[in-house]
């Protein structure tokens, strides 16, 4: 449908009905003196143009203060000819419109209040879901999660593919070999960074007064898409494992007398560490921890901590020490950190002073 235009203000309307309503109830500003509608009714104060003298009179009475100084503008047709009865009818019509508007506004406000009630209900539902998710995270942390290693790995794989971190060919390859990748007893090379300690030792001291580093054979092991989001405890254990495997007094217990070469002393994977921990439980180590995990850790995404590592190393006849830097509620948090940092400093300092001693990394977990 072709639009129609007001020849005075040049506004466009979809049809003539809207244009007629515009002429009847709205105002236009004069754009030029040669307009063919110049003979219509002009406000002597603000130069607005009206098509109806009654509308002009209402405009003057309602929009302009009577105490204002009126301009002496001559109009071709005066507004004094407007009928008082028509004026009263127009005022009555406007009053009815105002009342209808108030009723409509009141109903809209009531509807908004009802909507707010619904929004409050939705907010409570979302809060309950968030609380449930927090409880699920609590379960994950303390051995109550039902999500399997395989399920989480598949979810991570889909996520990295959607973000285009891997190609479609890689995605299909990993998807088909997912179970095989999880069951591998040796940690994947993609997560391992060897030679970190020698690099750190060559860095300039800067403002450091003293520097104590772990043995050079300690590798950094990070999470990959296969175990990202839950396996930090296993990764810390793998880094500790990477250091112990080079120490003859520990490698013999970890790998046996036949493990004489590097191939037989590799870093175990997360799934293999889960099997080792369950084996330690079966042998009677950390029965309380076993009960907390419902005697099941293999193919799960449950978080582990120092007690599980301690049980596993004890199973290999490796002596360990567990320190808890407890923070009472009535003591400043910085005090607990201070004692922790001081203990770590003394550990590395004492090991460094003993020239024949090898400095192994510490397994730390923040509660």
Could you tell me the number of beta strands?
7
Number of helices: 13
Radius of gyration, Cα only, in angstroms? 41 Å
The description of the largest β-sheet is:
3 strands, antiparallel
Q: Give the termini distance in whole angstroms.
A: 71 Å
User: Which blocks of ≥5 consecutive residues have pLDDT under 50?
Assistant: 30-39, 66-83
**Number of structurally distinct domains:** 3
* Integer average pLDDT: 75
Derived structural class: mainly alpha
Helix content: 40-55%
Oligomeric state of this protein: single chain
Strand content: under 5%
| Global outline | elongated
Spatial order of the strands in the main sheet? 3-5-4
Overview of this protein structure:
With 367 residues, the chain is mainly alpha-helical. It folds into three domains: 4-82, no CATH class; 85-141; 149-322, no CATH class. The chain has helices at 16-25, 53-63, 84-141, 149-162, 168-176, 178-183, 196-202, 232-244, 248-255, 270-282, 287-292, 306-315, 333-353; strands spanning 4-5, 12-13, 28-29, 41-42, 48-50, 192-193, 220-221. The relative contact order is 0.07. Mean pLDDT is 75; it is low at 30-39 and 66-83.
Please give a quick description of this structure.
The protein has 367 residues and is mainly α.
Give the secondary structure arrangement, pairings included.
Elements: E1 4-5, E2 12-13, H1 16-25, E3 28-29, E4 41-42, E5 48-50, H2 53-63, H3 84-141, H4 149-162, H5 168-176, H6 178-183, E6 192-193, H7 196-202, E7 220-221, H8 232-244, H9 248-255, H10 270-282, H11 287-292, H12 306-315, H13 333-353
Antiparallel strand pairs: 1-2, 3-5, 4-5, 6-7
């Amino acid at each position: 449908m072709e639009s129609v235009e007001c020849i005075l203000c040049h506004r466009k309307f979809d049809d003539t009905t809207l244009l007629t309503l515009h002429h009847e109830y709205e105002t236009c500003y004069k754009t030029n003196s040669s307009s063919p509608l110049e003979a219509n009714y002009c406000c002597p104060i603000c130069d607005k143009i009206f098509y109806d003298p009654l509308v002009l009179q209402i405009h003057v009475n309602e929009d302009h203060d009577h105490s204002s100084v009126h301009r002496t503008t001559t109009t071709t047709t005066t507004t004094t000819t407007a009928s008082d009865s028509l004026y009263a009818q127009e005022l009555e019509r406007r009053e009815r419109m105002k009342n209808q508007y108030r009723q409509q506004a009141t109903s809209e406000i009531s509807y908004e209040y009802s909507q707010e009630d619904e929004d409050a209900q939705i907010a409570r539902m979302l809060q309950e879901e968030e609380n449930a998710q927090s409880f699920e995270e609590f379960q994950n942390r303390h051995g109550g999660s039902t999500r399997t290693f395989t399920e989480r790995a598949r979810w991570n794989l889909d996520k990295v593919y959607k973000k285009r971190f891997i190609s479609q060919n890689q995605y299909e390859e990993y998807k088909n070999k997912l179970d095989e990748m999880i069951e591998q007893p040796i940690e994947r090379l993609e997560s391992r960074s060897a030679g970190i300690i020698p690099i750190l030792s060559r860095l300039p001291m800067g403002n450091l007064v003293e520097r104590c580093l772990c043995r050079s054979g300690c590798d950094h092991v990070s999470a990959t898409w296969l175990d990202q989001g839950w396996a930090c405890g296993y990764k810390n254990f793998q880094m500790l494992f990477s250091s112990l495997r080079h120490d003859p007094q520990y490698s013999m217990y970890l790998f046996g007398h036949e493990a004489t070469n590097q191939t037989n002393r590799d870093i175990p994977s997360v799934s293999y560490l889960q099997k080792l921990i369950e084996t330690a439980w079966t042998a009677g180590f950390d029965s309380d921890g076993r009960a907390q995990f419902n005697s099941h850790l293999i193919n799960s995404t449950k978080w582990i901590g120092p007690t599980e590592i301690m049980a596993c190393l004890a199973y290999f006849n490796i002596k360990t020490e567990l320190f808890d830097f407890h923070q009472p509620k009535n003591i400043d948090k910085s005090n607990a950190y201070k004692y922790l940092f001081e203990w770590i400093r003394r550990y590395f300092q004492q090991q460094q002073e003993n020239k024949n001693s090898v400095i192994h990394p510490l397994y730390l977990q923040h509660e």
